[in-house]
């Protein structure tokens, strides 16, 4: 399989095969050109952090990869398969792409345990007993097993987001997209979520993470992708990007957040 070479810094070797490929992707909202000729390849096992100013198209990029948004032109493939427009094949491919949102998006009227079981039973057709066992294992892994029988509203934001990560993992996704997963959290809860994400990264999960947490980017990312005005302006290792950004847009952005 053809692949990209990944400069991994001090991290373990990343296999150089492409899992998610965006080729010449364009997306408009009316007159607004929100994704402009976006080319991006994510290798299996790679952790890509996407940063950029508000409105630059980061969420739209994530949503397009999961086909929560259609695109106007270009091609997106997951593990070599183009994203179909609809139907059962789309549901299957979408299940390969986990998504963790800023606002948790748990089912409010289901318990924590049910939240992590539901997709397994409905989409993956796993039997209930196996789904429950797996849900408990994953809830334990993210440190919220003791909350299994509660409803989302009874949990803190940090706990809810860890449940959302467990729910994504329950589908055995090939890649997980995180769209500002800590932006809605109180400061004291940010680290407990980032630590779970760090562990996933160490375990070799392929991850696309939109975040303003530069500490996470520095320690977990293989690559930083900087977006502005719907374009990928710069791609670099975290070290290169933070110590020596090439574009004026990136320099300007970093001067405001660091
Ligand atoms: P980011 O996540 O980088 O802040 P978004 O991808 O959310 O950026 O948005 C990119 C641009 O597209 C913004 O100008 C936003 O207002 C616009 N946009 C996003 N979603 C929609 C939509 N459903 N309809 C119209 N405009 C949208
Ligand atoms: Mg966004």
Automatic annotation (TrEMBL):
InterPro entries: AAA+_ATPase (IPR003593), ABC_ATPase_HisP-typ (IPR030679), ABC_transporter-like_ATP-bd (IPR003439), ABC_transporter-like_CS (IPR017871), MetN_ABC_transporter-like (IPR050086), P-loop_NTPase (IPR027417)
Location of the ABC transporter domain: 20-254
Gene3D superfamilies reported for this sequence: P-loop containing nucleotide triphosphate hydrolases (3.40.50.300)
Protein location: Cell membrane
Domain of life: Bacteria
GO molecular function: ATP binding
Topological type in the membrane: Peripheral membrane protein
The entry's keywords: Amino-acid transport, ATP-binding, Cell membrane, Membrane, Nucleotide-binding, Transport
SMART domains: AAA
Family of the protein in this entry: Belongs to the ABC transporter superfamily.
Name assigned to this protein: Amino acid ABC transporter ATP-binding protein
Source organism per UniProt: Streptomyces sannanensis
């Amino acid at each position: 399989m053809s692949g990209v070479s990944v400069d991994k810094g001090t991290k373990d070797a990343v296999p150089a095969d492409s899992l998610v490929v965006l080729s010449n992707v364009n997306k408009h909202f009316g007159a607004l050109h929100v994704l402009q000729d976006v080319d991006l390849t994510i290798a299996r096992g790679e952790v890509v952090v996407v940063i950029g100013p508000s409105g630059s198209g980061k969420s739209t990029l994530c949503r397009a990869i999961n086909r929560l948004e259609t695109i106007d032109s270009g091609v997106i493939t997951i593990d070599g398969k183009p994203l179909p427009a609809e139907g059962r094949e789309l549901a299957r491919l979408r299940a390969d792409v986990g998504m963790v949102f800023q606002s948790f998006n748990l089912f409010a009227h289901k318990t924590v345990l049910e939240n992590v079981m539901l997709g397994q039973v409905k989409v993956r057709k796993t039997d209930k007993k196996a789904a429950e066992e797996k849900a408990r294992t994953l809830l334990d892994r993210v440190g919220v097993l003791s909350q299994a029988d509660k409803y989302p509203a009874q949990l803190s934001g940090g706990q809810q987001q860890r449940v959302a990560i467990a729910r994504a993992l329950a589908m055995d996704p090939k890649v997980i997209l995180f769209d500002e997963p800590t932006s809605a959290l109180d400061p004291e809860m940010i680290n407990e979520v980032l630590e779970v994400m760090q562990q996933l990264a160490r375990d070799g999960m392929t991850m696309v993470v939109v975040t303003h947490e530069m500490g996470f980017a520095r320690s977990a990312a293989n690559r930083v992708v900087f977006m502005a005005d719907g374009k990928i302006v710069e791609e670099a290792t975290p070290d290169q990007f933070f110590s020596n950004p090439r574009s004026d847009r990136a320099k300007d952005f970093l001067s405001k957040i660091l």
